[in-house]
Design brief:
This protein has 205 residues and is an all-alpha fold. It has eight helices and two strands, in the order H-H-H-H-H-E-E-H-H-H. Strand 1 and strand 2 form a beta hairpin. It is globular, with a radius of gyration of 22 Å.
Length: 205
């Protein structure tokens, strides 16, 4: 297992470098565009936006009618809730049959925050896979879970990355030529009123 993980890390490092170099070479104009699209690096843009807003915290994060004071205050609230839950768990081990100490609020809050921005279409498949693996198979088929869950998880992860690699270069234009998917119910055209995932944009007209 150690040798396989080491080999995978080395191979992945080389592959990531090749992918990055190819995308930077073929998508340079979009990467330099301050607006950009899916090639622009959402996480990096998010860090940049966060840095800008925090530099203007005095004006942005106030508690006046135009301020967003709850954003910095939520850091304090988020840090306090696990402490409160820990104190509760010392007095009540279970509440309605649930073990209080097993409720890890930082993990809950972190994953809940993923639903507020970026691409959220993957969340359903993540939740469904997690319920199937960690709830159904773990409780109903513990022998299978102990023997095969790790390798199945690795297979799903590897398969998803292989498909992402193929789509990036064969479809999404990572190699320079983009091949758009046909428009149908599962891939509608975005408009000023509706995104491709059928969520409204909040704009009229």
């Amino acid at each position: 297992m150690f040798l396989l993980q080491t080999w995978g890390s080395l191979f992945g490092t080389a592959l990531n470098y090749v992918v990055m170099d190819t995308i930077v070479a073929n998508r340079r104009d979009i990467l330099l565009d301050p607006i950009g699209n899916q090639w622009s690096g959402r996480k990096i843009q998010s860090l940049n936006t966060t840095a800008v807003t925090w530099s203007l915290a005095k004006y942005v994060y106030g508690f006046d009618k135009d301020g967003h004071g709850w954003i910095p205050l939520s850091i304090v609230i988020g840090a306090a809730i696990p402490v409160v839950l820990w104190l509760v768990s010392r007095k009540y081990e279970t509440i309605y049959g649930w073990e209080v100490r097993k409720l890890v609020t930082p993990v809950v809050f972190h994953n809940a925050s993923d639903t507020t921005s970026g691409t959220t279409s993957v969340i359903w498949s993540q939740v469904a896979t997690g319920l199937w693996s960690q709830w159904y198979m773990r409780l109903r088929h513990p022998a299978w879970f102990g023997k095969y869950n790790y390798i199945v998880g690795g297979g799903l992860d590897a398969g998803a990355k292989v498909m992402m690699f193929i789509l990036t270069f064969a479809v999404s234009g990572g190699s320079g030529k983009e091949v758009p998917f046909p428009t149908w119910w599962g891939n509608p055209t975005s408009s000023s009123k509706q995104y491709a995932d059928y969520c409204g944009t909040g704009q009229e007209g």
